[in-house]
Amino acid sequence: MLRELLIQCPDGQMKTVPLTGERLAIGRSSASELCFPEDAGLSRQHFAFEAQGGDWTVQDLGSKNGTFVNNIPLKARLILKPGDRVTAGHLVIVFAPESRTAAGPHVVFEGTDSTAPATSTVLTNLQGALSNQTMAFERGAPRASAPMQALIRAGQELTRNQTLDELFPVILDLAIQAVNAKRGVLLILEGGELVPRAHQGADFHISTGVRDRVLNERNSILVRDAQTDDAFKGRMSIVEQKVHTMMAVPLQTKEERIIGLIYVDSPSVLREFTKDDLNLLTVMANVAAIRIENARLAEIEQAERIMQRDLAQAAEIQGRMLPDKAPAVEGADLAGFNAACRTVGGDYFDFFPYGGGRVALALGDVSGKGMPASLMMMALHARVQVLAEDPGDLAAFMTRLNKATCAKCPSNRFITFFFCVLDAATGELAYANAGHNPPILMRASGEAELLEGGGPPLGILPMAPYRQLQAHLQPGDMLVLYSDGVTEANNAAFDEYGEERFIDVLRQHREQPAEAIVAAVTRSLTEFAAGAPPADDITLQVARRV
Length: 546
What we know:
By secondary structure, this protein is an alpha+beta fold. Helix content is about 30%, strand content about 30%. The strands form six sheets. It has a six-stranded antiparallel sheet with strand order 2-1-11-10-7-8, with no helix packed on it. It has a six-stranded antiparallel sheet with strand order 13-17-18-19-14-15, with helices on both faces. A five-stranded mixed sheet has the order 4-3-5-6-9, with no helix packed on it. Strand 1 (about 5-10) and strand 2 (about 15-20) form a beta hairpin. The radius of gyration is 33 Å and the shape is elongated.
C-alpha cells in the first residue's frame, strides 16, 4: 500500500510527500532528505522515517527538543499507524491519513481543448448567477425557495468558528447537498497547484479545459450529459465512472481572486444538473471563498500573535545574556551598546574583568538575522563564558572556540569574532581576531589605527590557524570594537555611513567619557539614517585608558 506524509510546514503551507525508498530523514541540515533550515526548533538531523517490513517506523535522532507522536514524547523506534500525528519544532506531520489513502481524492486533469465544441455545456459567472431571478427571494413569499433555503443553511453553517481543516469538508458537504450531487471534491490553489482539501468519492478526472476556464476566466461550467457531449463522451474515465452530469465552479473572493474550485458530478440519468443548480453552486462557492479567506486571515493573525509573543520572550532572554552596564575597572573607562534590527539579533558583546586593572572585551557577529542568528549568538555566549574564565594564550583560546563552533554550526552559517585582554595598568593589549572588522585604536592625539590581522571566521574550518597579536594604549587612547551594522548603515538614498564618518565622530569626542562616545555614535547614526530602518544589528564597545 502506498504510504505518504501530509506535512504542515512552518510557513503554514501544506504539502504531501510519498514515502518511498527505505529512509526519510528530517531536520535543518541540507543533508536531510527533507530540509527545513529556517525551523529553529529542529536539530540538524532531528528524526527519520524508516521502512521495516511492510510497516514504516519513526525514530528520534538524538534531537535537542525531542519528537512527539500523538503528543507523547518519542523515546524509542515506533511503528506508525494510519493517522498518527508526528510533531517536531514547528512541523506537524500526519502519517498516511486514511482520507488520503485507499479512499483518497485521486484527482487527474485530462487534456481537453477548452475551445472544443461541447453540445450540452452551460456557462455562467458570479455576476450572472447573482442576477438570475430564480436566486431572488420574493418579498411576501410564504417560504423560501429551495435555492434560498440552501443559501440560508450555508450562511448558518459557515458562521461557526471553525478551522480551515474543519471548514473545507463542511463547504463541500453543503455544495453536494444543495445540488443533490453524488460526488465532489474541493481543490485549493497552493503554490500555483490545485490541492484537494475535501472530497466525497475518489478518482476524479477533470478536463484541463474545464479547469482552465474556471480558474482563468472565472467561468462556472455545467455539462448536462457527459455521455453524449462531444467533448467528453470518448473519454474512458467518464465511461468507467459512469459520470452523467457534472459542474465546476470557481472559489472566487470579493476581490475577484480565484483561490480554487469546487467540482461535483453524478451518475444519475433521471436528473441532470440545471442552470439553476449552476447558479446556486456559483453563489455558494463565492460565499465559501470569502469564508475561507476570513479563516485564513484569522489563522495568520493568530500565528503572528503567537510568533510576536515568542519573539518578545526570546528578546527578553537574549537581552539578559548581554551586559546591562560595563564593569568598573581601575584605570579603564568602559561602555557598550547593542540594538537588534529585528526583535532578536545575532550580535554579541561582553566584558570580563579579571582584577588588577585587567579586563577582556568580546564582540561577535553571527551571519544572517532573526531567530536563527539569535540562537547561534546564545550558543556563542555560552562557549565564550566558559573559555573566558581563563583565556591564557589567545591564539589557543580562539582555536578551541572555533573547533567547538564548527562542531555545531550549520553549513550555511559562520561567526566573526574579536577577543582582547587589556591591562589598564600597563596599557598592554593582547588580541585575536576571527574574521571580524579590525577594531579602531584612537590615539589621544586624534590619530586612528586599525588593529589588522587574524584568522578566518568561526564555524568554517575546524583546523583554522589563529594568532595572538599585541598593541599598546597610552593614557587617553581609546579602543573601539564594532559590528558592521555601524559602518554599513544606510540612509533612504542607500548611502553608506562608512568608516571615515565613524572615525571622525570618534575623533571629535575622544576626550569624553566612554558612555558619551557611544551616545555620540548612536546619535550620528540616527541622524544619518534619517528614518531609514536599520538593515543590520548595531553593536559597539569603547574602552579608554584613563
